[in-house]
Write a structure and sequence with these properties.
Order of helices and strands: EEEEHHEHHHHEHEH
CATH topology: Rossmann fold
Mean pLDDT: 84
Strand order of the largest sheet: 1-2-3-5-4-6-7
Structural class: alpha/beta
Low-confidence stretches: 196-200
Strand content: 25-35%
Helix content: 25-40%
Length: 207
């Protein structure tokens, strides 16, 4: 894999300072590691491998829990004092933004998230985690405690050479717009929230 650590800088955030690393692939794609503390040589490092969700993280879409999961991951790592969020640019579980919006249209017409991807000719989840493994290796991370509800993510990282010593529940709650989506992820994709299903109140508006 032609992976280059291209740029890095300190980044102030709502959760305190992090160091941001930008990685480039030979095809020009860019991915990130958002790092707290010194993770080089670290074992059982608290880690979130997070896939980009433009609709949620930029527009505040309530159809999924991606922005809440990213925020929760940064908050948990900040509280621990050491850890890393690997941020992968693989929108829509690997199908891209345009196809993700096409899938949303199918969902609005009655398909669930898995059915919509399949109807468009894609796998239910087309993401790959070999890039995340390469980034963690570059950072010198020896093993991780992974913040995820997705067993396929654990298997994908371990299959790419990352030792996952523990899977930590990354439950952020549901709202009336994403409850069905999350239920399908539990029922059809094997996600394990390890927490009671609970609808949460929505904010009146995002500032």
């Amino acid at each position: 894999m032609n992976l280059l650590r291209y740029a890095e800088a300190e980044l102030p955030t709502a959760y305190g300072p992090f160091r941001l690393y930008v990685y480039r692939l030979g095809d020009g794609g860019e991915h990130m590691a958002i790092v707290k503390g010194d993770v080089s040589g670290g074992t059982a490092v608290l880690c979130r491998v997070h896939s980009e969700c433009w609709t949620s993280e930029v527009l505040g879409s309530l159809k999924c829990d991606c922005r809440d999961q990213l925020d929760a991951g940064l908050a948990k790592i900040a509280a621990e004092g050491t850890g890393v969020v690997v941020y992968l640019r693989q929108e829509g579980r690997g199908i891209g933004l345009g196809n993700k919006i096409r899938a949303y249209d199918l969902q609005n017409k009655g398909a669930d998230t898995v059915e919509a991807n399949l109807r468009l000719g894609f796998e239910a989840d087309a993401r790959s985690y070999d890039l995340a493994a390469a980034i963690l290796n570059d950072l010198g991370v020896r093993s991780v405690r992974l913040l995820t509800n997705n067993p396929l993510k654990v298997a994908g990282l371990e299959g790419s050479g990352v030792k996952v010593v523990d899977r930590l529940s990354h439950w952020v709650g549901e709202n009336q717009h994403n409850a069905g989506y999350l239920a399908v992820k539990r029922r059809k994709m094997g996600h394990h929230p390890d927490a009671p299903v609970k609808l949460r109140a929505l904010p009146s508006a995002r500032k």
